[in-house]
Amino acid sequence: MPASDPVLLITGASSGIGAATARQAAEAGYRLALGARSTDRIEALAEELGGPERAIAVTCDVTEWEQQETFVQTTLERFGRVDVAFANAGFGAARGFTAESPEHWRSMVLTNVYGAALTIRATMGSLRESRGHLLLTGSVAGRRALPGSLYSATKWAVTAMGESARQ
User: Fold this and answer.
1) 151 labelled catalytic
2) Which residues, 6+ apart, have CB-to-CB distance to 32 below 8 Å?
3) Is the pLDDT of residue 157 over 70?
């Protein structure tokens, strides 16, 4: 496949929106860098989407800066550029300020907010070079507060990061 095909880097690519986006992007001709904590799932998805010539799998916990740097560097070494970065990794929590454990909250806030910020930081130079695009997974919860929802607060932060990056 042509080296001119655009490159899409996706965090949280192992399931849900990330995996669905990868499949659609592959059909549209993108080469893919798939990142997630679930190594077996992204390796299977990379194989499904064309193997190493078209899709690579890189184990990446978005809350770890060194892993984000490695993800981007591996993508650049394999494909030469990043045209689109999709900061998609994230998850939710039950509503109510006593419904989840503090550990669940910590992990959610770090993944949804800090992880998205690290993805922006790790990909910004490559995106400037390629004049590429940054995508962030938001939510209606990031535009309208949901009662008792810490998840809503994380998605408000993602909305603000997107606007800050745009500016």
Assistant:
1) yes
2) 7, 8, 9, 10, 13, 22, 25, 26, 46, 49, 54, 55, 56
3) yes
